[in-house]
Amino acid sequence: MTNTTGGTQPEIQVVTPPQGAAVGTTTIEDAVVAKIAGIAARDVSGVHALGGGAARMVGAIRDALNTTDLSQGISVAVGEAQITVDVTIVAEYPVALQKVADDVRAAIHRDMVDLVGAGVVEVNVTIDDVHVPSDDEGDTADTDEAPTA
Protein backbone atom coordinates (compact mmCIF):
# COMPACT_ATOMS: atom_id res chain seq x y z
CA MET A 1 0.00 0.00 0.00
CA THR A 2 1.33 3.38 -0.91
CA ASN A 3 0.67 6.70 0.68
CA THR A 4 -1.33 9.02 -1.51
CA THR A 5 -0.03 12.48 -0.88
CA GLY A 6 -1.75 14.20 -3.74
CA GLY A 7 -0.06 16.11 -6.47
CA THR A 8 -0.38 19.71 -7.34
CA GLN A 9 -4.15 19.43 -7.87
CA PRO A 10 -6.34 19.66 -4.76
CA GLU A 11 -9.14 17.12 -4.60
CA ILE A 12 -11.74 18.29 -2.06
CA GLN A 13 -13.35 21.67 -2.36
CA VAL A 14 -16.00 22.42 0.22
CA VAL A 15 -18.12 25.47 -0.55
CA THR A 16 -19.98 26.77 2.48
CA PRO A 17 -22.14 29.85 2.05
CA PRO A 18 -22.13 31.37 5.55
CA GLN A 19 -24.83 33.85 6.42
CA GLY A 20 -23.56 37.41 6.39
CA ALA A 21 -19.91 36.42 5.95
CA ALA A 22 -17.43 36.34 3.08
CA VAL A 23 -17.95 33.55 0.55
CA GLY A 24 -15.11 31.40 -0.74
CA THR A 25 -13.83 27.86 -1.12
CA THR A 26 -11.87 25.62 1.20
CA THR A 27 -9.42 23.20 -0.37
CA ILE A 28 -8.17 20.19 1.59
CA GLU A 29 -5.17 18.36 0.12
CA ASP A 30 -5.00 14.56 -0.09
CA ALA A 31 -2.00 14.49 2.27
CA VAL A 32 -4.07 16.20 4.97
CA VAL A 33 -6.88 13.67 4.57
CA ALA A 34 -4.36 10.79 4.80
CA LYS A 35 -2.76 12.29 7.90
CA ILE A 36 -6.12 12.67 9.66
CA ALA A 37 -6.99 9.06 8.81
CA GLY A 38 -3.59 7.90 10.12
CA ILE A 39 -4.02 9.74 13.41
CA ALA A 40 -7.52 8.30 13.84
CA ALA A 41 -6.30 4.75 13.17
CA ARG A 42 -3.33 5.05 15.55
CA ASP A 43 -5.64 6.12 18.38
CA VAL A 44 -7.66 2.88 18.22
CA SER A 45 -7.04 0.40 21.02
CA GLY A 46 -5.49 -2.79 19.65
CA VAL A 47 -3.57 -1.10 16.81
CA HIS A 48 0.18 -1.58 17.29
CA ALA A 49 1.40 0.14 14.12
CA LEU A 50 0.35 1.21 10.63
CA GLY A 51 1.73 -0.04 7.33
CA GLY A 52 3.20 -3.20 5.92
CA GLY A 53 6.69 -4.54 6.60
CA ALA A 54 8.63 -2.21 4.29
CA ALA A 55 6.64 0.85 5.35
CA ARG A 56 7.24 0.04 9.02
CA MET A 57 10.98 -0.36 8.38
CA VAL A 58 11.12 3.08 6.76
CA GLY A 59 8.89 4.37 9.57
CA ALA A 60 11.36 3.12 12.19
CA ILE A 61 14.12 5.11 10.48
CA ARG A 62 11.87 8.20 10.34
CA ASP A 63 11.01 7.77 14.04
CA ALA A 64 14.72 7.59 14.90
CA LEU A 65 15.18 10.89 13.06
CA ASN A 66 12.11 12.30 14.85
CA THR A 67 10.20 12.78 11.57
CA THR A 68 7.25 10.40 12.00
CA ASP A 69 5.03 9.96 8.93
CA LEU A 70 1.48 10.08 10.31
CA SER A 71 0.05 8.91 6.99
CA GLN A 72 2.17 5.73 6.86
CA GLY A 73 0.01 2.77 5.83
CA ILE A 74 -2.79 5.01 4.58
CA SER A 75 -3.96 5.43 1.01
CA VAL A 76 -6.80 7.79 0.14
CA ALA A 77 -8.86 8.40 -2.96
CA VAL A 78 -10.55 11.76 -2.71
CA GLY A 79 -13.35 12.79 -5.04
CA GLU A 80 -15.53 15.88 -5.21
CA ALA A 81 -17.27 15.22 -1.90
CA GLN A 82 -16.47 11.60 -1.06
CA ILE A 83 -13.45 9.76 0.29
CA THR A 84 -12.26 6.16 0.12
CA VAL A 85 -9.57 5.15 2.62
CA ASP A 86 -7.35 2.04 2.58
CA VAL A 87 -5.44 1.40 5.79
CA THR A 88 -2.93 -1.33 6.65
CA ILE A 89 -2.45 -2.09 10.34
CA VAL A 90 -0.51 -4.34 12.69
CA ALA A 91 -2.78 -5.52 15.49
CA GLU A 92 -1.78 -6.25 19.07
CA TYR A 93 -1.98 -9.83 20.29
CA PRO A 94 -4.42 -11.01 21.63
CA VAL A 95 -7.22 -8.83 20.28
CA ALA A 96 -10.31 -9.67 18.28
CA LEU A 97 -9.17 -8.75 14.78
CA GLN A 98 -12.66 -8.01 13.41
CA LYS A 99 -13.35 -5.69 16.36
CA VAL A 100 -10.09 -3.78 15.80
CA ALA A 101 -10.88 -3.46 12.08
CA ASP A 102 -14.41 -2.24 12.86
CA ASP A 103 -13.07 0.25 15.43
CA VAL A 104 -10.51 1.57 12.91
CA ARG A 105 -13.28 1.96 10.31
CA ALA A 106 -15.50 3.82 12.79
CA ALA A 107 -12.69 6.14 13.96
CA ILE A 108 -11.62 7.06 10.43
CA HIS A 109 -15.21 7.54 9.27
CA ARG A 110 -15.98 9.78 12.27
CA ASP A 111 -12.91 11.97 11.73
CA MET A 112 -13.50 12.27 7.98
CA VAL A 113 -17.04 13.49 8.59
CA ASP A 114 -16.23 15.68 11.62
CA LEU A 115 -12.90 17.19 10.56
CA VAL A 116 -12.92 17.07 6.75
CA GLY A 117 -16.64 17.44 6.19
CA ALA A 118 -16.81 14.91 3.39
CA GLY A 119 -18.75 11.68 2.99
CA VAL A 120 -16.91 8.39 3.26
CA VAL A 121 -17.63 5.79 0.60
CA GLU A 122 -15.62 3.04 2.30
CA VAL A 123 -12.78 2.35 4.69
CA ASN A 124 -10.88 -0.82 3.79
CA VAL A 125 -8.74 -2.31 6.57
CA THR A 126 -5.93 -4.78 5.89
CA ILE A 127 -4.39 -6.51 8.90
CA ASP A 128 -0.82 -7.12 7.78
CA ASP A 129 0.58 -8.65 10.96
CA VAL A 130 -0.02 -9.32 14.64
CA HIS A 131 2.43 -7.95 17.19
CA VAL A 132 3.29 -10.55 19.83
CA PRO A 133 5.18 -9.11 22.80
CA SER A 134 8.20 -11.30 23.45
CA ASP A 135 9.26 -12.42 26.90
CA ASP A 136 12.63 -10.64 26.64
CA GLU A 137 11.30 -7.12 25.86
CA GLY A 138 11.47 -6.07 29.50
CA ASP A 139 14.83 -7.73 30.14
CA THR A 140 17.40 -5.06 31.03
CA ALA A 141 20.34 -7.33 31.82
CA ASP A 142 23.69 -5.94 30.70
CA THR A 143 25.16 -8.34 28.16
CA ASP A 144 28.58 -6.63 28.11
CA GLU A 145 29.59 -7.91 31.52
CA ALA A 146 32.16 -10.68 31.65
CA PRO A 147 30.93 -13.91 33.23
CA THR A 148 32.15 -14.58 36.74
CA ALA A 149 33.64 -17.96 37.61
UniProtKB/TrEMBL annotation:
This protein's name: Asp23/Gls24 family envelope stress response protein
Disordered: annotated span: 130-149
Short name of any one Pfam family annotated for the protein: Asp23
Compositional bias (Acidic residues): 135-149
Family of the protein in this entry: Belongs to the asp23 family.
Organism: Microbacterium maritypicum (Microbacterium liquefaciens)
Domain of life: Bacteria
